[in-house]
UniProtKB/TrEMBL annotation:
Record SUPFAM superfamilies: Thiamin diphosphate-binding fold (THDP-binding) (SSF52518), TK C-terminal domain-like (SSF52922)
Name of the gene this protein is made from: dxs
Source organism of this protein record: Komagataeibacter melomenusus
Transketolase-like pyrimidine-binding domain mapped to chain residues: 342-507
UniProt-listed HAMAP family: DXP_synth
Known catalytic reactions: D-glyceraldehyde 3-phosphate + pyruvate + H(+) = 1-deoxy-D-xylulose 5-phosphate + CO2
Subunit structure, as described in the record: Homodimer.
Cofactor: Mg(2+); thiamine diphosphate
Residues reported to bind thiamine diphosphate: 91, 132-134, 170-171, 201, 311, 393
Pathway of action: Metabolic intermediate biosynthesis; 1-deoxy-D-xylulose 5-phosphate biosynthesis; 1-deoxy-D-xylulose 5-phosphate from D-glyceraldehyde 3-phosphate and pyruvate: step 1/1
Name under which the protein is recorded: 1-deoxy-D-xylulose-5-phosphate synthase
Length: 676
């Protein structure tokens, strides 16, 4: 038999034939005629398929397992994709992807060239809004609902759509979510088709209270109850103004007493809940009632779910298997890679904890990422000086600014990609006032499987343009240890310390970090005597962890008789202008390299060279991330794609010299380690 024919007949889905209901569902319209009992079975099979998938790919498992029933119910009740379902953040959408025509590709999740770990508009029409940062769904959903209404007014044949925004209890803590809800009640008729589903998976507001809660939720979403409220509202309007307002308040507070929804009612939402998010019977009936309701205004449906639901290893784990590596489905045991050097995050956290023992002015702030930033260790050692403000980066920054005004030494630890959300606060509340807030900028540079949404590509550019900020980037874990100690001692103004995701180089670390001079770089390798065509030779000035690849490139160039000078800038701001001028005067080619976008360190260096006239005498070549987003892959592959690896550095140098040699792969010889 022809090999191509065999490939076509081979099932692309390894579990095909295992699930009676799931195998019949390729698209949501295949679910519309299923009974509630069939939907329950479908949910169980979908949960099993999700577990099997993530066991082979890794990823965000706990959140996906928590919304299996909700996902099934939403697609069974609403006319997706015409009706829009927006998933806040998007890390809980693996079941959604399986039900929306992507089951045959689900095992490419977060793999090179495969499905994104989040929603993505270019991936499917069932992903109406791309997201991987939190708290955006209500704003986007409200915009869609209003747009549908405006289109319907212009075109009578256009059917207004339901818009459902699913947002977690953590995400709804952010100010943007409340800004959207506050605006929804004033957006006019279009907002009436907006349904916000509050996915409360931490029992943080109120758990369901049994049969009575179920009965009340279904009652308040029913047509009879809604008609009764409409009748009461019409009668109230015939009363004098003061009595009408009193009647409206009485209705709202009576429902608030029963359900805990007074806050949302005050924001203009019709509140339904709390509802058991794993009870398919409740979900389907309530969602149908809300789908068919008219003129009740925007709705908030409060759903209680459990992260990791239905998979005992996840249910019993402290983090509910929020993010996992590949694992054994039967035991839940995650596959661990070989032990290696400590991560940059852990090196930073360890030094901070050590110094806090003798400096009670050190305080730490994180925005819902204690373990991701390493501050969980600080919280355990010094709980009174640790503050998790929830998903509220703007508040975190200004909160830290307030602490700094009173003489504390605040460390605001936020991923580079999330710090973007607080840019105005960084500029106005910290930098403008010259307050000594220390920004520990984790996940700087490319981040691997989380892709472009989580990449720390822009912080050098967006922070480096601010007057008076100090911006450091360690080339290895030893440098990070020293820079952490330096940041603690630096009280002259705002400071950013950016470091990458992943492990260090395995360097030996002393017990304590040493303070380094602000704005001073270092020569790591001196240029050897040149035997090539250029007497001036090559200088490579690296900012951050690209130094390791710069040293590999130096070995490759040395093999061609072009051994370069390699320097570690250490600081993007203030620049070590003496070092830059020395390199420019004594070399024919000057290359800068950084793990950041155009407009960052290379631009700062080029501006200085232009102002001093040195740009006229040196062939300057800045190497940055390309002016596009880099898709998910391994970090090594991403930097190769970005043209920031040793081969790319070597070829940039050779091209600048006009030497007709092109390298395609690095030499086997390893680079010497950096000199302190």
């Amino acid at each position: 038999m022809d090999a191509n024919i065999m490939d076509q007949t081979k099932p692309a889905i390894p579990t095909l034939g295992r699930y009676a209901q799931l195998d019949r569902v390729q698209w949501p319209h295949d679910m519309r005629n299923l009974s509630v009992e069939q939907l329950k079975q479908l949910a169980e099979e979908l949960r099993s398929e999700t577990i099997d998938t993530v066991s082979t790919t890794g990823g965000h498992l706990g959140a996906s397992l928590g919304v299996v029933e909700l996902t099934v119910a939403l697609h069974a009740v609403f006319d997706t994709p015409a009706d829009r379902v927006i998933w806040d953040v998007g890390h809980q959408t693996y079941p959604h992807k399986i039900l929306t025509g992507r089951r045959d590709r689900i095992r490419t999740l977060r793999q090179p060239g495969g499905l994104s770990g989040f929603t993505r508009r270019s991936e499917s029409e069932y992903d109406p809004f791309g997201a991987a940062h939190s708290s955006t769904s209500i704003s986007a959903g409200l915009g869609m609902a209003v747009a549908h209404h405006l289109r319907a007014e212009e075109d009578p044949s256009y059917r207004e759509r339901n818009v459902i925004a699913v947002i977690g209890d953590g995400s709804i803590s952010a100010g943007m979510a409340y800004e959207a809800m506050n605006n929804a009640s004033h957006c006019g008729p279009g907002a009436e088709r907006l349904i916000v589903v509050l996915n409360d998976n931490e029992m943080s507001i109120a758990p369901p209270v049994g049969a009575m809660s179920s009965y009340l939720s279904r009652l308040m979403s029913s047509r009879k109850f809604l008609n009764l409220r409409e009748l009461a509202a019409k009668m109230a309007k015939r009363l004098p103004g003061r009595l009408e307002r009193t009647a409206k308040k009485a209705d709202e507070y009576a429902r608030g007493i029963m359900t805990g929804g007074t806050l949302f009612e005050e924001l203009g939402f019709y509140y339904v809940g709390p509802v058991d998010g794993h009870d398919m019977n409740q979900l389907v009936h309530i969602l149908r009632n809300l789908r068919d309701a008219e003129d009740v205004g925007p709705v908030l449906l409060h759903v209680i779910t459990e992260k990791g639901h239905g998979y005992s290893p996840a249910e019993s784990a402290g983090d509910k298997y929020h993010a996992v590596s590949k694992f054994n489905v039967v035991t839940g045991e995650q596959k661990k890679g070989p032990s290696g050097p400590p991560s940059y995050t852990s090196v930073f956290a360890k030094e901070l904890v050590r110094q806090a023992a003798t400096d009670d002015r050190i305080v730490t702030i994180t925005a819902a990422m204690p373990s991701g930033t390493g501050l969980d260790k600080f919280a355990k050692a010094y709980p009174d000086r640790f503050f998790d403000v929830g998903i509220a980066e703007q508040h975190a920054v200004t909160f830290a600014a307030g602490m700094a005004t009173e003489g504390l030494r605040p460390f605001c630890a936020i991923y580079s990609t999330f710090l973007q959300r607080a840019y105005d606060q960084v500029m106005h509340d910290v930098v403008l006032q010259k307050l000594p807030v220390r920004f520990a900028i984790d996940r700087a540079g490319l981040v691997g499987a989380d892709g472009a949404t989580h990449a720390g590509s822009f912080d050098i550019a967006y922070l480096g343009c601010l007057p008076g900020i100090t911006l450091m980037a360690p080339s290895d874990e030893l440098e990070l240890l020293n820079m952490t100690a330096t940041a603690i001692a630096f009280d002259e103004g705002p400071l950013g310390l950016r470091y990458p995701r992943g492990a260090g180089l395995g360097l030996a670390l002393p017990e304590a970090g040493q303070i380094i001079e602000i704005g001073r770089g270092r020569i790591v390798r001196e240029m050897a005597r040149q035997s090539g065509p250029e007497q001036g030779g090559i200088a490579i000035l690296s900012l951050g962890p690209r130094l390791a690849d710069a040293l590999k490139a130096a070995d490759m160039l040395a093999a061609q008789g072009l051994s370069p000078t390699v320097a570690d800038a250490r600081f993007a701001k203030p620049l070590d202008t003496a070092l830059i001028e020395q390199l420019a005067r004594n070399h024919a080619v000057l290359i800068t390299i950084e793990e950041g976008s155009v407009g960052g360190f290379g631009s700062f260096v080029m501006t200085h060279l232009a102002k001093t006239g040195l740009l006229d005498r040196v062939r300057f070549r800045p190497m940055t991330l390309p002016d596009r987003f880099i898709d998910h892959n391994s970090q090594e592959a991403q930097y190769h794609e970005a043209g920031l690896d040793a081969v790319a550095i070597t070829n940039t140098a050779l091209d600048a010299l006009g030497v007709g040699i092109s390298m395609t792969q690095p030499l086997l010889k390893t680079a010497n380690g950096p000199k302190s």
